[in-house]
Structure formats: C-alpha cells, structure tokens
Amino acid sequence: MGKPKILVTGATGRTGAIVLKELQDAGYPVRAMVRKEDGRTRLLRAQGVEIAVADMCDPEAVASALQGVQRAYYLPPVDPAMLHGATVFATAAREARLEHIVLMTQWLSSPAHPSLSTRHHWLIDRIFKMIPDIGLTIVSPGFFADIPYLSALAPAVYFGIFPWPFGSGLNAPPSVDDIGRVAAAALMDPNRHAGKVYRPTGPELLSGRDMAATLSKVLGRKVRLAPTPPEIFLKAARLEGNPISVVSVMKNYIEDARRGAFQVGAPTDHVLRVTGREPETFETVARRFAAQPRFNRSPLNYLKEAFQFMITPFVPLPFSKYEEGLQISRPLRPQFAVDSQIWLAEHSRVKS
C-alpha cells in the first residue's frame, strides 16, 4: 500500500516550504494549496508537487483541494479573514474524512488578547479540536529566530548595532527549519502524535545581549545592543515589505515579549523528542541568514541599507485606520498573554 497523500497549505511560505521538502524527501505524495499561480508554483510543479489553487475562504475550492488527500498541514494566514478560512477548512476536512491534521498556531493564543489574529488563533485551536474522527496535532511556536530578531540583521552587518525593542524579555527562539520538521514528523506518524501539542524552541533562553554577542561572532565585528522604540522597529518591518495586517499585530507581540511571555516554560525538548535531532541554535540560524547576498558588505549594499536606515522614521503606520476599518469590537478588558489566567493555565500544560 502506498503512502498517503498530504495537503500542505502555505507551501510557498517559510514553514510550509520546509514541511513540503521533508515530506517529499521521505517519499510522500504531496499537494500544495496556493492562492495563485506564479513562479514559485511553477517551480514546485517541476519538483513533482501537485498544485491546487484555492482561496482559503472558498468552500468549493478548498473541498476540491482536499479530494483524494488523507492528511493535511494547515497554516492560518494572518489576515482579517483567518477565522472564516479556518472554519471553511475544518468543514471541508470533515467532509473529506481526513485522518489527521497538523495545525500551526501560536504560543500567545488567548481569548482576550489585544490582537485580533491572536484571539482568532485561540478560537481556531478549539474549532479544530471539535472536528470528530480526525486526529489533530498542534504546533505552537513563539517568536522565530529569523523573524523578528534577524529582521534587524542589516543594521548589525552595516552599522554594528542590533535594534532591540523587547526589553528584558528572554526567548529560546526556534528555527523555521525545526518548526517545519516537527510538523512534518507529526504528519508522517499520526498515531504517535495525535492529540499532542508541541512547542518547538531553540536550545536555550537568550537575552538581547546574548543575541548581539552571537552576531558579533557570526559577523566578525562588534555588534552593540541598541534599545529601540517599538514604533521604529515596526516602521522598519513595514519598510521590509510586511503587510499592515502583520505589523499591526506585531506591536502587541513586542509588548508580550517585554513581559516575558516567551520565556514561560522555555526551552522545551520537543524538537529532539519529535524529530530525533537537536534544535538548531541561534548562531546556526544567524549564519544561514547572514549568507544571503543582501548582507555582502559591498559599497552598493551599504548605500542601500544606509538609505533605508535614514528613511525608517518617516514610514507611516496607519494602525488606527486599518484596525477601525475591520469594524470588529475589542474585548471589554484586553489582556496580554501573561496577564490572562486562561492563558497561564493552558500554557502550563505545554511542558518539556
């Protein structure tokens, strides 16, 4: 009997691409569900991946994408329709009689969080848990090593400063590769992982000074930690091309990080336990990130980064306009993760 076919959503994204590669390397037939045809999907086809083009909120298109599939990796997109899309996917998965789903959620998910997408993640977790007769594994990472921390690598490379809006908060940031490998392992062995919640982390808790010291080693130059107003950090993220839907929630996550939400229960042994491999260190991820052509210290690259650095304070952040345009009421008493008794009770169960 052949291996079951697995659907991967977000297959052209960061974690989805790793999940797809791990499954293909292990000989599983895979189908990628994407929003549109582009150069990335053509490359996937050339690699033997089936492509299903479907809007996440289109019930008929999602149902078609799930035909003939036995398992799925589901990544809710960070946009105002994420709860709608997740409900569509859960409905289609039930009708398709999938045997197992791996759901990518987030460590901060809680019911009264200031961030709409974080409240939606909390609801999506529960929607998927209520699907009868389908095994479920939840993967719940915090801040990744690359984003947001290494989003600030350019100032470290060119100016020797590491922007840091996260105060004294610590984190054991996981690599994207490790997160993808955990999800793929759960898809390949659902009997072992059904009903489990995994929180991949890096091997040790790190402060901003620890990360700056690591970057000094990686880059071969002194890198100084530079406490940075969150607004400036967010303007830089917007300038990097992040959509306003992502940047608007990041402002809340910075406050969560400052309050120590990511150090609760960290580090875990989940990467080793699920994949059989030690988790990648922050240094490993930083070296991989720094190898990108953008960080080759050429005069042209320096001028580009200097220009971007100078215009960052002038980047608009239309948070109020965006959030008011959603026309969704906020909780009566918004609570960051560590202020929520529900969050503390639920997350104390996710232990190494």
Automatic annotation (TrEMBL):
Pfam families, per the entry: NmrA
Residues annotated as transmembrane: none
SUPFAM superfamilies: NAD(P)-binding Rossmann-fold domains
InterPro entries linked: Ergot_Alk_Oxidoreductase (IPR051604), NAD(P)-bd_dom_sf (IPR036291), NmrA-like (IPR008030)
Top-level taxon of origin: Bacteria
Domain NmrA-like: 3-235
The name this protein goes by in its record: NAD-dependent epimerase/dehydratase family protein
